[in-house]
Amino acid sequence: MDNSITVRRMNFAIDKDMEKYWFGGNPLISTFFYALSGTFPDGERFFIDTVRHYRNNVKDPKLQQEIRAFIGQEAHHGKAHEDFNNALEAKGFPVNTVAAKAKALLDLARKRLKPQRQLAITVALEHVTATMAEHALRHPDLLEQMDPTFRKMIIWHAVEEIEHKAVAFDVFRECVDNEFLRRRVMFMTLLLFFGRAISFQRMLMRADNRRASLKEWWQAMKFFWGKDGLMRESIPHFLKAFKRGFHPEDIDQKPLIENWQQRYPDVAGLQTN
Ligand SMILES: [Fe+2]
Ligand SMILES: [Fe+2]
Questions:
Q1: What is the pTM of this model?
Q2: CA 210 / ligand 1 centre spacing (Å)
Q3: Hey, what's the torsion of the CAs at 222, 227, 233, 236, to 10 degrees?
Q4: Which of 74, 199, 224, 229 is most buried (CB neighbours < 10 A)?
């Protein structure tokens, strides 16, 4: 397979009557993803800005081309999440408040941190998104439990995250090349990202005022920490990135996105370009 990165325009028709808890009716798992969705619009903008800052320093023409595609993909992701966030807001979840809080945090990083450190944050978060994308695509049974429109968006986003997972990394390697900084920032970013995600999730749960049942807690425990659980599968991948000399392509995720159009024709059918 060639490593080309394709910018796809998608047409997701968001169903206003979608289920309130789009992950199998479970409020704990659903709000975790709503919290993440809240952080995405400005997160994606941050990724774009940090890579764009170094664009003119990149000599490799192939990487230049990849940067262009990376920017295109991330811009579309941000827009798609904005639309979903508005739909969730209409369901009573203050996801746009989450988005504003995430933006305030990222604005602080923009103001206070040097460009190389900002790019290292992007590198870390791109590893997080590619890892979560792998988990989603590895478990079609989980995808089946999602609201149909969300499911399609997650598949599209996951495919593209894996496609472009090394772009920010390669820019960092060409323009900054500081393993100590990369690994230190990775550690801080993981703590901050998951810490914030949990606090945003709690905020959404409080606003919803619905207590999860014991069964729902058990489902959520299994989803995150059980065998094949999101965190249980992701943590070993996070740890790999702390190895000196690590490269995102060391983790082979290509089989998961190869011929994805045949495996998910309903998602591929939404592409408009
Ligand atoms: Fe993205
Ligand atoms: Fe990305």
A1: 0.95
A2: 30
A3: 120
A4: 74
